[in-house]
UniProtKB/TrEMBL annotation:
Protein name listed in UniProt: Tat pathway signal sequence domain protein
Keywords from the UniProt entry: Coiled coil, Signal, Transport
Pfam families: SBP_bac_8
Organism this protein belongs to: Streptomyces cahuitamycinicus
Principal localisation: other
Gene3D superfamilies cross-referenced by the UniProt entry: Periplasmic binding protein-like II
Family named by the database record: Belongs to the bacterial solute-binding protein 1 family.
Compartment(s) of residence: Cell envelope
An annotated GO cellular component: cell envelope
Coiled coil regions in record: 464-491
Lineage of origin: Bacteria, Bacillati, Actinomycetota, Actinomycetes, Kitasatosporales
Keyword Coiled coil: yes
KW Coiled coil (keyword) present: yes
Length: 519
């Protein structure tokens, strides 16, 4: 069948060989599933070359990818310079990232599929996984085993990221590696904490007490935004964003995250924060709440959970007009004050696929693109991919690359989507933030376990794909007091009878055949 997974001996046969890159040495090596970190200044004269000879053969390649913002014209200076460097004429079909899943569904259902299609993990619902298997090429003949050595930057991508790129028994994806250490951070205003003498909490009770102390609605100050994501971490709830990670073997029985006591306890604690009035009113809107940046900067709330990338982006956007502003990441606590039980993130979450109809020369040209975009930090190819052309898109002042307006408009979220180097954090403008981010990942990574299906790319049978779709909305309704915990218990019971128990049996069979990734 088309569903299931490929692991163990079968995966070994098709995975690319791993050859670590020694082009550049990180300042902070990876540990406990963290990214590697760079904390030094940038010296353009010492940049290394990781692609000594151009591998592109001058062909034309169309790439469809999600884009957030307004895409630049095809003939812009960045695209031209990248294509000249690679030796391939890449033509971008950028689509609005916010409505990408609809566009993806339509394109994959048609007979006219671009040469390369980027698919983020969060867009892999419904029929998309089976379309990936039927529409995209097997890259094994080009990359399995030692064949990958023709593309040294692809050979340096960690094996775990490649294992996630196996769909329907074949190596189909070019991955964007990610740290397996947790990525969801309770971010807070360290400057205000220091000024007011607030202590970072170490349990859920301490958090509640602190939240009440901070909150003064008359003065327009609340403690936090919706803390549901942090609650899931504090109570040790299985990761929910990637379906197979929501399953785990507990005392010999497969359990889905929504069936656990911890899940209900996390929702209940999050609900109590809303009920206590310590959550900023914007959070009542749920998913459609406005961007938290401006009100966080204004001090209207002091804590919110979000992706670790916001640690740097918030720092950067406030640096000039708000010099006292300091955002930092809290260590996640166990709900009762003990060590937390965290769950490892997937080692890759965004993939580029090559059309089954592509000729060998097109496939080789795409791999030439990927070999440049996967160049490590500290190389000329990385600088070109991530910053563009020196003088046109950025200048370097005191070892810090500063993008011009042209750089900000043209050099964003395109080429990096084709393939990326091992997870890397580098902010020459704020090296202390890069260090803080990597060290946070390392501390939290020490508490992170791998659930039974970690790192496997699993295609669920189509009949189950929409089974869990309504849970996120229900979680949010309960946390906001619009629904009760008993509504969730009822929904879980319905889920079991509508197919949840059968899906469990399906996963159990997978486990019996493939073994567990858990550790």
């Amino acid at each position: 069948g088309q569903d299931g997974t490929t692991s163990g001996k079968d995966a070994k046969k098709i995975l690319p060989a791993y050859v670590a890159t020694n082009v550049v040495k990180p300042d902070v090596p990876a540990k406990n599933g963290s990214a590697i970190g760079f904390t030094g200044k940038l010296d353009l004269s010492t940049l290394k070359t990781s692609v000594p000879k151009q591998l592109g053969k001058g062909g034309k390649v169309t790439v469809m990818a999600p884009f957030w913002g307004s895409p630049p014209k095809q003939s812009n200076a960045y695209y031209t310079a990248m294509n000249d460097l690679i030796g391939v004429d890449v033509v971008w079909q950028n689509q609005d990232g916010n409505t990408y899943d609809q566009k993806l569904g339509a394109v994959l259902a048609s007979s006219d599929v671009p040469d390369v299609v980027v698919v983020p993990g969060w867009n892999m619902g419904g029929k998309i996984p089976s379309a990936i298997i039927s529409k995209f090429a097997d890259l094994g003949p080009y990359l399995s085993g030692d064949k990958v050595k023709e593309y040294p930057n692809l050979a340096a991508i960690p094996t775990d990221a490649w294992r996630r790129s196996i769909f329907g028994g074949k190596l189909r994806g070019l991955p964007m590696p990610a740290p397996s250490a947790p990525s969801m951070v309770p971010l807070y205003r360290q400057d205000i904490f220091e000024k007011e003498g607030y202590e970072v909490p170490k349990s859920c009770d301490e958090f509640m007490a602190l939240a009440k102390e901070i909150t003064n609605a008359k003065a327009k100050r609340w403690a936090c935004l919706d803390m549901k994501w942090t609650a899931f971490q504090a109570f040790g709830v299985l990761s929910g964003s990637e379906k197979p990670l929501g399953w785990n073997l507990v005392d010999g029985k497969l359990v889905y995250r929504i069936e656990t006591e911890e899940f209900l306890e996390a929702l209940e604690w999050s609900r109590k924060l809303f009920a206590a009035g310590v959550v900023h009113p914007d959070s009542k809107m749920g998913k459609n709440a406005p961007d938290p940046g401006p009100k966080f900067a204004a001090g209207e709330f002091l804590i919110y959970p979000n992706n670790i990338s916001q640690w740097w982006s918030r720092t950067a956007e406030q640096a000039t007009q708000n010099p006292d502003f300091k955002i930092w990441g809290m260590d996640v606590w166990g709900h009762d004050g003990g060590d937390p039980i965290l769950w490892a993130d997937q080692p890759a979450g965004i993939f580029a696929f090559i059309s089954k109809k592509a000729s060998e020369s097109v496939i080789r040209d795409v791999l030439a693109v990927a070999n440049v975009t996967a160049a490590p930090y500290g190389t000329k190819e990385y600088m070109m991919t991530n910053y563009g052309v020196e003088g046109t898109h950025y200048t370097v002042k005191d070892g810090v690359p500063v993008k011009s307006d042209k750089g900000n408009n043209e050099v964003l979220n395109a080429y990096v989507m084709v393939a990326s180097p091992a997870a890397t954090i580098a902010h020459p403008d704020f090296p202390e933030v890069a260090k803080g981010q990597v060290e946070w990942q390392q501390r939290m990574g020490a508490f992170a376990k791998k659930s039974s299906f970690w790192g496997m790319q699993i295609t669920e049978p189509a009949r189950y794909t929409n089974l869990s779709n309504d849970f996120e909305q229900l979680e949010d309704d309960i946390v906001r007091g619009r629904k009760k915990i008993s509504d969730m218990q009822q929904a879980v019971s319905d889920w079991k009878s509508k197919g949840g128990d059968k899906l469990r049996d399906w996963y159990q069979k997978l486990l019996d055949e493939n073994g567990s990734a858990a550790s």
